[in-house]
Amino acid sequence: MQINSKTLNVGIIGKGDFSDEMLRRFLDKKMFGLCCGLQSHNYENLLPLRNFEELDKTADAVLIFDPAFCLYENLVEVIKSCKHVFITDTSHMSKHQLKKLSNYAYEAGVHIQVSNGLRFEHIHTEIKHLELEPRIIECNHYLRRPKTKKKLSLIQDILLPDIDIVLSLANSRVKHVSATGVGVLFEDPDVVNARVEFYNGCVATISASKIADKQVHKIRFFQNNNYHTLNFQNQSLRILTGSDLNEVVEETNLDEQIEDQTNFHKSVNRQEILEKEIESFYYCIVLGSDPVLSLSEFIEARNVTERILDQLERNFSRK
User: Fold this and answer.
1) Domain interval for residue 237
2) Closest CA to 134 of 74, 262, 223
3) How far apart are CA 239 and CA 295, in angstroms?
4) Which of 69, 125, 150, 308 has minimal Cβ neighbours within 10 Å of its Cβ?
5) Are residues 24 and 114 in the same domain?
6) How far is Cα 202 from Cα 150, in angstroms, rounded to an integer?
7) What's the confidence (pLDDT) of residue 261?
């Protein structure tokens, strides 16, 4: 897609995975014009800022990669200045603050896009054109047991992005959430199982662990006449229909038939995914369309994680 009818003046806060090469490509495509940065790159075309308050008033949009600046107070000022915002971290803000930011953005007529790279991986974008009405969703995300007790939130760091994908697949309001968790090695849950029921009848079971013996990251969803498997670990998408299953029964080599239904993709490049996210952010501003992951959608995912946490408070005993 090339609709470079508008060049955006951009403020870049922090670096993250946003590289000099990425910035150069956006400038070369004339998607970005005047750029200023705070604690960001040393790129020659980037005007350095001394503090957040110096953020160029001519900026149309702000990209915030440093969690230290993903603060409610900062974002309120940016949004009230009618700037579009791309943020990579919301852990420092409460759900109430996020809702207020969403209201401010609506009043100012600007977009807030929240980063979730899972939405831009090949295996997820490949199913966007399909008519999906899943009735059962299974999500399993297991991380290998760490050698040291490094700080990693099972809810915020692992479950939250998956829950966003599950909600987008179910495409319905959440009716009920139940969850339980245990702490085997850590003083917070390191194994969690949750069940999410939706008003359209869909049911999702979500399991996560950060002390597993092997890495697993897979989402399966079943609907009438077919089921899909998104395997984020090996970047494969399997789609099997009822007619395929009937044909497979008649064949002697079942494994070979199932393999034929699987599409594999190259391994994920995090910088490439981030570039796709920022490019989609640019087009949602230029075209006036909704972000791929709007703040209101993200709030729904945060709401489910908080309901899971509420459940865990009642049935999880800290050491």
Assistant:
1) 122-267+303-315
2) 223
3) 30
4) 150
5) yes
6) 36
7) 56
